[in-house]
Amino acid sequence: MNVRLLAVLAAVLVALSLAAPSASAAPVDPKAPSDFVALSDVDPTIIQEIRYFTPHNFTGDPVDGYRAPMCILTRQAADGLHRAQILFLLQGYSLKVYDCYRPQRAVNDFVAWAKRLDDQRMKAEFYTGVDKANLFRDGYIAEQSGHSRGSTMDLTLVRLPARQTRPYVRGQKLVDCTAPQALRFPDNSIDMGTGFDCFNTLAWPLDPRIQGQQLRNRVMLLNGLVQQGFAPYSYEWWHFTYKPEPFPDTYFDFPVSRSSLRR
To answer: pLDDT confidence of 4, banded at 50, 70, 90?
Structure first.
């Protein structure tokens, strides 16, 4: 093989190596549209306890896509929570968010978990009365979530001054989310009749078995948010969506992280 042919082959190989994508290159995460903001930038007084960043959730593990314990929302939804928070603060309460924007990869993680029927680690707290095989049928798990559109959040109320919530320790004894508040995981929120993410009809906002102070607490949360443009969900007292949604038909997948937001 002559020198000129070798030079041509070398040039071709270099060109191919430059054109081919690197197998080791990490995929670039998508960014959030400019309409999305960190809730703490809009209202730093709203308490955040982002459960899916931690193992204290129905899967028993931190959920894919939650890279920071922060609430991200569309600006319209964040502004609505800020307005509601002002009024709740005047009454001696603060909002506390458990979850806000949820990437599609997190929803996919839920779906994969629901299909692993042998993984029942968190059943004793979150779904004692539900057969895990029926989570899809009963509507507790779905392949898409309104949270991924950016204007839905899960939240509650905390009486001020807020007490510290004892950290969850993986492997600790679990208590049914429908048990009396004094026995459930010691969340610092007011008594809503069940814990957060409780797969039980008692979590329906107006379940007739919820009475007295528990019902008044639910109605206080509902009324305060509805007045600011939020719509409740019929099956979860903690779930609200700002209306009209800026992205009613788009399911985003950027990670929950400060780096996902445009500066």
So the answer is: low
